[in-house]
Amino acid sequence: MKKKFNLLLLGNPNTGKSSLFNKLTGLNQKVGNFPGVTVEKKEGTINFKNNYFANVIDLPGTYSVNSFSPEEEVVSNILLEKNKISPDAALVVSDIENLKHNLLLFTQVKDLGIPLYLIINMCDVMEKRGIALDISTLEEELKTKIFLISTRNSIGIDDLLNEIPNIFDSDTSAIVDNNYMDFGTIQKINNENNSSLFYKSWLLQINKISNLEDLKKIKHKEAVHRYRFINNKLNKTLNIDRKKAYDLRSKLDNIFLHPFWGTIIFMSILALIFQTIFTWSSYPMDFIDEMFSNLSNYTKAVLPEGVFTNLLAEGIIAGIGGVIIFVPQIALLFMFISILEETGYMSRVVFLFDKRLKKYGLSGKSIIPLISGVACAIPAVMSTRNINDWKQRLTTILIVPFMTCSARLPVYLILISIVIPDNYFFIFNYQGLTLLGLYLLAVLMALISAFVFSKMIKSNFKNYVVIEMPNYKVPVLKNVLFTVYSKTKSFVFEAGKIILSISILLWILASNGPGDDFKYAEQIILEKYDNKKNISELDYEIQSYRLENSYIGTAGKILEPILNPLGYDWKIGIAIITSFAAREVFVGTLATIFSVGSENVETIKEKMSYQRKQNGQLLFNLPTGVSLMVFYAFALQCMSTIAIVKKETNSWKWPAIQFTFMTIIAYISALIVYQTLS
Amino acid sequence: MTLDKIKLNQTVKVTKVHTDYVPTKFVQLGFIPGAEIALERPPSKNGLLYIVLDGFYLAITEEIAKKIEVEKID
What we know:
The complex is a heterodimer. By secondary structure, chain A is of the alpha/beta class. Chain A is 59% helix and 8% strand. Chain B is mainly beta. Chain B has a single domain, classed as Roll (SH3 type barrels), CATH 2.30.30.90. Chains A and B meet through helix 3, helix 8, helix 9, helix 14 and strand 12 of A and helix 1, strand 3 and strand 4 of B. Strand 12 of chain A pairs antiparallel with strand 4 of chain B, so a sheet runs across the interface.
């Protein structure tokens, strides 16, 4: 036995594999991606006596060693040692209710000669479901030690933990004969005299077959042969008396899968989630915002004035605050998603919505990220992890930022109040209708874009609709908390790094300028107004002048010729650049540019209403205002979203494509709107 | 008959799987000759069949169900 060995956790989806992983490793776990792919990798450690320890790897759920998705390909590559992770030992997790189907993977892993135990989970429901299993006979038939456990009630976990160090004493011989293999292939590999390596050699051989139809027939034949073996073994050991079985599945399915009531219930659940993310999280978010603001002010007060203090207070602390502020939303969303998954309800959601969303290239599970995106795109993008099909997941990630997030609201509200008359069409207020129109426009563009992306994205894996419909269960609090913890941690430490870096960069660009105008801003303003304004007013004028002459201000002026056809001047250009940090910064930036002493919407609104272009026209007139709203509806003006998309797709390629695509759509749409209305 | 014709409260046995059309994944899920299938819920308008395959509850498309031949069990 090695001092440190890899212990793979394998199993079909919904067998409780991740719950077992949590039980075995506790908080000694880290979440990342497998190299080169966006498949989540969960690793944890178990320490044994004499400094031995197991590196437990929770592999993605799979039905067999043959791969039909990137997740299954990861598992297959590890088992066939095409990956750096060596498969030293394995725990194959199955569910007592689906033992027959779960054993297909078990027989394959067993035949690969990997030391393993068979774990049969959910033993606590055996009596309720009328299931009886002759464990000792099955152990003999499968030449494998079996552990009956319940991750829900912590049954059998300690026994398993005690026995893991002895896993290398397991019988590693193959259990299924080779009769399904064709003679030619057997001849090619017959120099291998170890029967357990024979299956591995066979898999490597058949994977070289280029004719897909031939390969398919071989895999079909193997599966049929293995199922015959499994049926034979279970006929001797497993007895299910369905008359004794009782569960609420049918009754609950009647409600949750009802085309009308099921949809209403789901919409109500979404409303609750949405309400939580949108409003309840605002309390902790406000607290975090205030805390970091106070910390920033305190830092400035206690440290000597200078560049370092400003960088720390306005760049680094504000940047960290900009990461932590999303934690309540992420934690709450994942708490709900985890509960929906744990209860088995998520499969019903897919059943209800799959057909409706499939025509746009999305999955039934895309509904959760899309609706969550109305609150914030960050947790919404993270929640796409629940979509199994990579292409559907990527399509969902790419369109989520079109949904009208809460950060767009301050921009819309101020622009609507300036350019849309407060009149009524029957009982409908024009301003309200405009806001509604912007929300609907976003949904429409998201669906059109989903259709476009689904046609453009190529996938090597075909997606077939097979929805496993697990039993309804009461969620286990510990599992829910583990999910919340791991998702939040991965956001803070992975996407957080990118967000912090961009925050600091934006701060540097806004706090430094290329010429004397920036350097001597204070002197220039003091001379210009010559004590005609009070100290506070002068201070805002200096800030405004500095921003105008900073690198960001210069960039805004450089962008002016590009933005002019949309009706924008350099001031709006600056606000567009700074609001890349977060869309709501648009209002704050305009407040600074127009030298408004507070972010009071009414005051800013008043100032903005009077601003004029060089040709004397109002800057914020109807064409410019509507054009700007359309621009913000479609543009990816959010560095945090870009950071999270990079993290979730494990590449800069997709955020770059997404940013370019959305910016082009935003520009063209805003151009059409402005040119048409003016 | 094919699986898409299955009725509620009826149990059928798979007799043939058209391997040219049915993806390998389905065979690996247990759609093999001899497997017993029952319909869990009446067919829905969303084109999905909610079935029980040897105690395994899952939903598949009618399109795939048409490629699986079955016979009634008395």
